[in-house]
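Page 42, continued from yesterday. The earlier attempt failed because a stray header line got pasted into the input along with the sequence. Redoing it now with the clean sequence only.
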Amino acid sequence: LPRDLAGSEFFGHLKGAFTGAFNGKQGQFEAANGGTIFLDEIGNLSYDIQVQLLRAIQERKIRRIGSTVEIPVDVRIITATNEDLKLAVSKGEFREDLYHRINEFAVQVAPLRDRPEDLILFARYFLNQANRELNKPTGAVGRNSFGKVILLHSI
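This time it went through. Structure tokens are written below.
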């Protein structure tokens, strides 16, 4: 998500709020009200969006870009990033208060490159999904093929 679009995507905007805002738009927080929102690559957010996000978390209210009306929101937030947020906090690139708000329950997942055996699981999952979506068998991947995939992956 480009940094300049994050505010509009997260919180929405009013018609005419900025150049190109020809219509009003509901943001993802408002759309997720009563449910869960997933924010990927949260480490890449600009400082001003971090401030707005922290406010939304603390006050449970958002304001569309160009509006003075506060909209109450009740959302569960799940975030992900491949950035080292502790390091970003120490460098002043990520707000410490926001870090503590979003880091209530952390799950560390090793990169796929360190888990070649999981390639088999993913290949089977996506093959089965393709079979269902295409409504026909697309074939099976044999064990020998998986060995080749893992070998190529490790090179």
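Notes: The first strand starts at residue 12 and ends at 13.
Reminder to self: strip header lines before submitting.
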